[in-house]
Amino acid sequence: MTETIRNARAAALPAKLSRSWLLVNAAKEEIFTEAQISESDSVIFDLEASVSDDKKLAARDNVVRALEGGMSAWVRINKMDSEFWDDDLASIAMLPGLRGVMLPETERPEQVSYTAMRAKAGLPVIALLESAMGVENATKIAEAPGTFRLAFGTNDFRKDTGFSGDPMALAYARSRLTIASRMGGLPGAIDGPSAAVASDEQVRTDAEVTHMMGMTGKLVLNVDQVVTLNESMSPSEDERDWARQLLEAAEGGSEITDGSYLPRLARAKKIASLASTYGLWNA
After folding, report:
1. Is residue 5 within 8 Å of 65, Cβ to Cβ?
2. Is 200 annotated as a binding-site member?
3. Mind listing the UniProt keywords for this protein, alphabetically (predicted)?
4. 82: Cβ–Cβ under 8 A, 6 or more apart, which residues?
């Protein structure tokens, strides 16, 4: 029996609730274990952006060994029109540790559906939107069979459009992913990462933007940022206190006072559920 290596708490968390999505360079097999035992809710072995063409075959072999040997992860495969896409899927689709795939440069809904069919029935696909076309087709992509969540490739999107990294400049794109996810009945969208060298303070600031835009997950490039990101993407202590007071009042028989009561109660229940899932409700 193969020993499981993945962080037990993170492995048990449904991917629809994952806050932190750690991208791991698949060419660097020596950092796989650190990623697996980290507090990142989800781990993504990256065969695409972080791996040069001359190292992609070796990187794929690394991923196959890892997912056969007790590790658990998502895999960012290469884009559909690359020479590597088909073999990526053929190599990893049936591996026991595979959680799902991330499809880069997604621009049309059929790209997701075809990827899902090429892999195996039921394999979830995260559609990474990295261009103006991808963002404008976000709702169609969200509604496509096989789409599990939408993710925002902020850096490549900026290259495609010329936008700056200012949150105001990217607000439309982020809101499009949030609205599309709602239209498609998907979990919240996954935002792009902070810079790999970002301080904890910057990670918190970036996560606040993500949260304000209705997104519920975030890519992360540096394992040292994971704990700060998880804290920032979870219900705050103030939110938990507010929810606890409202729920206790409701259990005590408090009356409906106005039209906002039931929506507030529903929000309190959602905060309590998320906090409990993340191990924070009784913290």
Report:
1. no
2. no
3. Lyase, Magnesium, Metal-binding
4. none
For residue 26, give the nearest of 46, 6, 44 by alpha carbon: 46
Structure tokens at 63: 């991923």
Identify the CA nearest to 130 among candidates 110, 153, 101, 162: 153
Tell me the domains of the chain and their CATH numbers: 8-233 (3.20.20.60), 237-278 (no CATH)
156 is in an annotated binding site: yes
CB 220 within 8 A of CB 43: no
| pLDDT number for residue 1 | 44
Instruction: Kindly report, residue by residue over 63-100, the tens digit of the pLDDT.
Output: 999 999 999 999 999 999 999 999 999 999 999 999 99
